[in-house]
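Field: COMPLEX_INPUT
Field: COMPONENT_COUNT = two
Field: RESIDUE_TOTAL = 327
Field: MODE = joint
Values follow.
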Amino acid sequence: MNELLNWLLQQKGSLRTYVEFQDRALALRVDAPEQAALLRLLTDLAGRFVEAYDRQPLSAGIAAQALDRLTDFLRRAAGESAADPASQLALLNEIGASELA
Amino acid sequence: MSANEIGREVAELLFRAGAIHVSRQQPFILAAGWASPVYVDVRLLLGDPDLRQAVSDLAARYAAATFPPGSFDAIAGAETAGIPFAAWLGDRLALKLRYVRKRPLGIGRNAQVEGGSVEGLSVLLMDDLTTDGGSKLNFVRGLRAAGAEVEHVLTIFYHDAFPGADARLQEAGLTLHALANWGDVLLAEGGGGLAPEDRAEIERFLADPVAWSTRHGGRARLAPRS
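Field: COMPLEX_OUTPUT
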């Protein structure tokens, strides 16, 4: 998870970032099956953003906001991996109810 | 009709459709990460019957002047906006029509190409817009994996400000054909409808797009070729 976070921190946040994020997150499920639900939710979150802005004008402001949001979720997810089940579930539900922009 | 004349006419159609958007306050972030003050929504040509017929006629003229008869068995539209343009051009050229997804479906047949087999067919890939060519390579990979022979890509507009697309496509054995590019937009008579400040911003951007992108928080250089 930290490796994925470090990669994301180096990205500019264009749509191609989110497409690659999906590939990386889905691949990570193989090595981290205990995080499968979290990674699936993050993948879906990134995918909805791609669908929403595919060939749409993506302003720098929205791009920055979306990248901040995804980074925040991923940072919290990395920190919550050792948290109690209730906290982990709360984060999953928050991601499930969120959009990046 | 020369390619330059076709380019000017397509640019005029884009102006008539309101497809040329300029933002001097906040740049657009293109799919490949470049920052740009301009965004071209080619899909606006779809909505008006006169405009879509006109651009399809121009595409057919370009194809007739560029490709010898019998060059292609089929035309494939790139998901999503490439599909209707491919359908209209396919009608004019009497070609089989296919479409290619951004990704394989992931379930069932795991198909990336729809509309029938492309095994052994010479296919022209069509899309509405090209920036760095990355998505075109992805579509071509899908077509070739399904057995198609693909050597040419036709796009309505080529956002040719940023370097590298031609070279990347050539490395993959592809030739990019664009009906119009930025040069055509600036030369089109409809370009007179641009506000002077917008035209000046476009010219500043086109003078050094990579530096413009870097200054405005976008990508700063070409990715290394893989």
